[in-house]
Write a structure and sequence with these properties.
heterodimer, A: about 230 residues, Double Stranded RNA Binding Domain, 3 domains, six-stranded antiparallel beta barrel, extended, B: about 120 residues, mainly beta, five-stranded antiparallel β-sheet, structural constituent of ribosome (chain B), ribosomal protein (chain B), Ribosomal_bL19 (chain B), Translation_prot_SH3-like_sf (chain B), Large ribosomal subunit protein bL19 (chain B)
Chain lengths: ~230, ~120
């Protein structure tokens, strides 16, 4: 598997390096995660390790989420057992709130195993995948950094609007793909090649340089970068 | 919960004991500066006019008059570069931010001394 772990963004602060310089960091509570499933070439067509982070109370988890982590009795399970079909291995842990797969060889992993932030202890830089803060239906000035229009000189209540979009006689139409207003944020964002400042195995924390996508409390995937 | 985690992170970078001083104090701030390969201590003295932030991000502002021109320097309280802060004189002040000193010149910038 790619070296990586699931976590939750705690917030930003600043720390000092050895020479006393201030470093802005984002604190991520990373792990411990459980291995929920192993995807194999024969069965699934690809290899990956499925990790789960953050326990979800059983009363909130639906049946499929509970069945993912522990065997549930059902007519079908009994029928399969009677027919001599081996049940798939279960991790035997609590249901998880955040489940993601990390692609790569499953060697050295087994279902139910606990993965801690220690896997990233010798990693210099990581990619952080999160969901950006939602900004709703945003205008062009916020969404695409358009300049808007003038405050005075006869501009009529269109100060934050885009300008013309279709030109004149030629081409007499709007080109496809033109930047316009619309849903902004609340999308998957990958921040690549983010420097690791510190890995705190005792408290399951990782400190990365600068910002990370999403709100405080948002779930993120932190994995070793593949950038050179 | 998340604030606990933040405190754990910051605890490692905070000074176990910070020098005691208050708003309105005249202080000497001893900072370490690197000249070539040699480290030396530089002293900057003035009046503390503000403290802001919390945790490792706490800063304090020291104001002084240099050549008739007001100069303010902002220091991170927990920075390893700030060696020590020595309070030399305490004053009677009634607010947490003494920004009104910026509008004053000459004798009007004086603060009444508080004898402890």
């Amino acid at each position: 598997m790619t070296k990586g772990i699931l976590g939750r963004k705690v917030g930003m602060t600043q720390v000092f390096d050895e020479s006393g310089n201030i470093i802005p960091v984002t604190v991520i509570e990373a792990g411990p995660c459980h291995v929920l499933q192993l995807k194999s070439q024969e069965r699934d067509g690809y290899e990956a390790v499925q990790l789960g982070f953050d326990d979800k109370p059983r009363r909130l988890a639906n049946r499929s989420e509970r069945g993912q982590v522990a065997p549930l009795s059902s007519k079908r399970a009994k029928k399969l057992a009677a027919a001599g079909v081996e049940a798939s291995a279960k991790p035997d842990c609590e249901p998880k709130r955040f489940v993601r797969e990390l692609r790569g060889s499953t060697e050295g992993f087994e279902i139910g195993q606990e993965v801690s932030v220690g896997v990233l202890s010798d990693v210099k830089a990581v990619d952080i995948v999160g969901t950006s803060k939602g900004r709703g239906y945003a205008g062009v000035m916020k969404r695409h950094n358009f300049a808007g229009q003038r405050a005075t000189h006869g501009v009529k209540k269109v100060h934050r609007h885009t300008g013309g979009t279709g030109c004149s006689a030629y081409p007499s139409r709007t080109f496809k793909g033109l930047n316009m207003s619309g849903q902004y944020g609340n999308a998957k964002v990958t921040q690549r090649n983010v420097k690791v400042v510190k890995v705190d195995e005792e408290n399951n924390l990782i400190l990365v340089y600068g910002a990370a996508p999403g709100p405080n409390g948002g779930f993120v995937v932190v994995k070793a970068t593949n950038m050179v | 919960m998340s604030q606990d985690l933040m405190n754990k992170v910051e605890a490692a970078y905070k000074k176990p004991e910070v020098d005691q001083f208050e708003i309105g104090d005249t202080v000497e701030v001893h900072t370490k500066i690197l000249e070539g390969n040699k480290e030396r201590i530089q002293v900057y003295s003035g009046t503390v006019i503000a403290r802001s932030g919390s945790g490792t991000r706490e800063m304090f502002t020291v104001r002084r008059i240099v050549g008739g021109e007001g100069v303010e320097k902002k220091f991170p309280l927990h920075s390893p570069k700030v060696d020590k802060v020595v309070s030399t004189r305490k004053s009677v002040v009634r607010r947490a931010k003494l920004y009104y000193l910026r509008d004053r010149v000459g004798k009007a910038t004086r603060l009444t001394e508080r004898r402890v």
